[in-house]
């Protein structure tokens, strides 16, 4: 009976896992397949995953500046996402370390207050942020998006890094201080190397939020030359060049940077939590 129950549980687990994978992967497979299908095959019934006559015409159209300025939108998104993630990580490192290690009046109140930002949806913050951005003279600039995305991702980044910093043994930091290291030297020489997986994870999180965000970008950006990829993809719907295959090709190209980023830093995420923390 025990063997049958165990086998039944494994079968149920595998079936549920396959359903979840299908639910997650089917949209991506459809997107990639449609990007290579000629226009006449887009509405073919029954639909085929592998097109009969694969073509690159949709990618050629997307990369044609006269049809869709993809490279310009890509550059804008890359600049905004990279600076947003980088600045957010730097602020999070020092803020999270203060929450995890330093004792000062009001620390717990500030820490909980930061997380309270997530009680309010993005729609509720659009108007006050718009007023602040306009008064600072930053409307229709990439800087407005960088500031907004840093504010948007900072609470979770602080929470994630703060919890990770607490897992770093205090004895290692105390030994470094006894050896004459300052608090900043402890952060750069001890805490950061041991927290590389968490820092990389926070960077990827902040980068993805900034890369895919649409609401604030649609409010703060007016010039077509400063549009990010989400805005550009939305505008493609309303042009004479709109076709399903071209939309799917643009979506595939938009997803590639995030995939490359994740694959390039995967070893840091799966690395040891205390690598290098013990002297040999």
TrEMBL record:
Q: Where in the cell is it found?
A: Cell membrane
Question: Locate the ABC transmembrane type-1 domain: which residues?
Answer: 74-265
The processes (GO biological process) annotated in the record are:
transmembrane transport
Enumerate the transmembrane spans: 12-32, 78-100, 112-133, 145-165, 186-211, 243-265
Iron is among the record's keywords: no
Main location per the UniProt record: membrane
Q: Which SUPFAM superfamilies match?
A: MetI-like (SSF161098)
Enumerate the UniProt keywords alphabetically. Cell membrane, Membrane, Transmembrane, Transmembrane helix, Transport
Q: Name one GO cellular component term.
A: plasma membrane
Q: Which family does it belong to?
A: Belongs to the binding-protein-dependent transport system permease family.
**UniProt protein name:** Carbohydrate ABC transporter membrane protein 2, CUT1 family
**Organism of provenance:** Halanaerobium kushneri
């Amino acid at each position: 009976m025990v063997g049958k129950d165990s086998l039944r549980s494994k079968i149920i687990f595998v079936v549920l896992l396959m359903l979840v994978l299908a639910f997650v992967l089917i949209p991506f497979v459809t997107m990639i397949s449609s990007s290579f299908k000629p226009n006449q095959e887009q509405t073919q019934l029954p639909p085929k995953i592998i097109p009969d006559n694969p073509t690159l015409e949709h990618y050629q159209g997307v990369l044609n500046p006269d049809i869709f300025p993809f490279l310009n939108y890509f550059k804008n998104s890359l600049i905004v996402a990279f600076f947003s993630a980088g600045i957010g990580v730097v602020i999070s490192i020092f803020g999270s370390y203060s929450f995890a290690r330093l004792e000062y009046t009001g620390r717990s109140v500030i820490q909980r207050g930061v997380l309270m930002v997530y009680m309010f949806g993005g729609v509720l913050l659009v108007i006050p942020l718009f007023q602040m951005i306009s008064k600072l003279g930053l409307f229709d600039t990439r800087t407005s998006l960088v500031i907004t995305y840093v504010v948007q991702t900072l609470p979770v980044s602080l929470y994630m890094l703060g919890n990770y910093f607490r897992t770093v043994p205090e004895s290692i930091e105390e030994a470094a201080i006894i050896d004459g290291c300052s608090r900043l030297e402890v952060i750069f020489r001890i805490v950061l190397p041991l927290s590389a997986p968490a820092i990389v994870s926070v960077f990827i999180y902040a980068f993805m939020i900034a890369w895919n965000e649409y609401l604030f970008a649609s409010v703060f950006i007016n010039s077509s030359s400063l549009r990010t990829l989400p805005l550009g993809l939305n505008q493609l719907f309303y042009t004479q060049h709109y076709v399903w295959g071209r939309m799917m090709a643009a979506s595939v190209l938009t997803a590639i940077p995030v995939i490359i980023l994740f694959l390039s830093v995967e070893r840091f995420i799966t690395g040891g939590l205390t690598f290098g923390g013990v002297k040999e």
